[in-house]
């Protein structure tokens, strides 16, 4: 069974080579490779999750023992994260296939999408399975390289700017990470998690606290917690819908996973627990207030993402069995629901021509299936019973009450307020985009939505006509094309940044993939008992530490 541990990393990397070799001339083969490999990763992840319930699994690549070899470890937490992430990435891939085929994107950018996406999946799996700090860093860098390609697909101006911001922030966090790794190795002579868990106890308190603070900073940037989350609302919304969905759903949770792993395995005792609770509270309140102020759906969802990361940090900050278990439940829930909401946002943009809520309406009548696909995850993320969002929030609040400290009670109140404001936000979206009458400016079926390059060309034409004394062309002169408040045409929804055509009936493949993520989110409610029991055992294993250490260091 241990031989299966490296496969979630190796299979996508192997498929990347095949996908690049296939290229644009063998589009169907390229799609088949991607779907087949991710399906295989789902099966392997489920097997690992079940097997890890009997104890951690490990493999030393090349049969080199720590600290020389590369160690990959699958325990309950990593097995669960692998399973959820592989299911979500498969659904998003199918969604992207539907979007690409509907837009007839057959140019080079789409041929690059599949290899970049597979590399991203391999990087995510590497971080979940990494048994040492160095390979955790390698996983981060694999994700960074593929993320920049995916964020800038099509080469539009906004995507390049957003990708540049993302890369700069990521490189800064990588530099801090490398310095932390260097200090760790200089102090202990190893970067292997199991060995560090034994050797950190012998270090001066100041050294371990410095390393802990640096690692928390790195993982906080990745997770987009306040005050290092300002980059996210400007980076994610410009990307294609499937890219934004997998980034929002998964990449931020990689940072949360790393917090869970290091805070329980390397830094027991919760020395910085109060700081984490303050950060959690600030992320919740500031994030949701930012969402309240938004009128663009993608930016609104980006701020709710920041806010709900606070719930997970809340559980980590409590650092007890109930808090850790609640955090794991909420991570699983949020990966799926946040991904679903961004996929729905892509469908709304395709149906209405924009994600600007002031220019949407009437979709409850004109697109009832799309309305349902939004309503279910919206109620889920708001924490309405009996959805998994309610289960996760209730577990975290009960853990806060059981903790009994003043700061924990403040977090319970902050969690309640954040949940109510989240409900207000999703109800606002429902009222504006779905419930009210369709506004006169909404794009009709068949309207060609212009890309950013087309918009720039139109602006240049308008300037040229004005210079020669002709009538200046304004955005309102483009009949049938909706205009954002303050001017400027709507950004295209195409993966490659090309112009697309709105439609009242989104492609069935996109609808089916989105519906699959909705069903996956609902399954957490149906399987709430087994899920809660599994996460409780996972939390106990994390806090005990002994099973992990013994598995990695056994002869």
UniProtKB/TrEMBL annotation:
Protein name per its UniProtKB record: Na+/H+ antiporter subunit D
The source organism is Streptomyces fungicidicus
Lineage of source species = Bacteria, Bacillati, Actinomycetota, Actinomycetes, Kitasatosporales
């Amino acid at each position: 069974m241990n031989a299966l541990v490296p496969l979630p990393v190796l299979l996508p990397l192997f498929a990347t080579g095949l996908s690049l070799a296939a290229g644009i001339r063998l589009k169907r083969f390229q799609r088949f490779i991607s779907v087949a490999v991710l399906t295989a990763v789902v099966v392997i992840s489920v097997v690992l999750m079940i097997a890890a319930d009997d104890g951690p699994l490990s493999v030393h690549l090349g049969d080199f023992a720590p600290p020389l070899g590369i160690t990959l470890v699958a325990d309950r937490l990593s097995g669960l994260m692998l399973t959820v992430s592989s299911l979500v990435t498969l659904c998003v891939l199918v969604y992207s296939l539907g979007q690409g085929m509907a837009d007839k994107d057959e140019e080079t950018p789409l041929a690059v999408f599949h290899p970049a996406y597979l590399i991203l999946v391999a990087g995510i799996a590497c971080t979940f399975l990494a048994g040492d700090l160095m390979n955790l860093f390698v996983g981060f860098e694999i994700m960074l390289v593929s993320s920049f390609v995916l964020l800038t697909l099509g080469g539009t101006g906004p995507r390049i700017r957003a990708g540049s911001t993302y890369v700069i922030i990521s490189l800064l966090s990588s530099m801090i990470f490398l310095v932390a790794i260097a200090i760790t190795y200089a102090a202990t002579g190893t970067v292997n998690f199991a060995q560090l868990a034994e050797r950190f106890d012998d270090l001066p308190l100041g050294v371990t606290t410095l390393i802990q603070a640096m690692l928390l900073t790195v993982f906080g940037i990745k997770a987009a917690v306040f005050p290092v989350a300002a980059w996210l609302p400007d980076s994610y919304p410009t990307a294609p819908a499937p890219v934004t969905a997998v980034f929002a759903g998964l990449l931020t949770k990689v940072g949360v996973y790393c917090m869970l792993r290091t805070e329980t395995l390397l830094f027991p005792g919760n020395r910085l627990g109060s700081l984490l609770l303050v950060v959690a509270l600030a992320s919740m309140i500031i994030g949701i207030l930012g969402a309240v102020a938004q009128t663009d759906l993608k930016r609104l969802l980006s701020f709710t993402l920041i806010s709900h990361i606070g719930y997970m940090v809340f559980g980590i900050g409590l650092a007890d069995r109930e808090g850790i278990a609640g955090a794991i439940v909420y991570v699983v829930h949020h990966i799926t629901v946040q991904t679903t909401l961004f996929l729905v946002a892509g469908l709304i943009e395709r149906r209405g021509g924009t994600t600007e809520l002031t220019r949407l309406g009437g979709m409850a009548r004109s697109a009832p299936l799309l309305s349902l696909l939004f309503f279910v995850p919206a109620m889920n993320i708001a924490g309405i019973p009996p959805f998994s969002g309610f289960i996760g929030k209730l577990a975290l609040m009960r853990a806060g009450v059981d903790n009994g400290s003043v700061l924990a009670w403040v977090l319970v109140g902050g969690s309640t307020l954040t949940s109510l404001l989240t409900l207000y936000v999703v109800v606002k979206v429902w009222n504006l985009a779905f419930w009210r009458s369709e506004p006169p400016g909404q794009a009709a079926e068949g309207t060609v939505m212009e890309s950013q390059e087309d918009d720039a060309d139109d602006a240049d034409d308008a300037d040229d006509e004005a210079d020669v004394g002709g009538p200046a062309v304004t955005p309102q002169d483009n009949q049938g094309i909706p205009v954002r408040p303050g001017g400027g045409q709507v950004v295209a929804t195409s993966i490659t940044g090309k112009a697309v055509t709105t439609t009242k009936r989104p492609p069935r493949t996109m609808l089916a993939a989105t519906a699959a993520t909705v069903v996956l989110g609902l399954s957490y409610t149906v399987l709430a008992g087994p899920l809660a029991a599994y996460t409780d055992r996972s939390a106990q294993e994390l806090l005990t530490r002994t099973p992990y250490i013994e598995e990695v260091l056994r002869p």
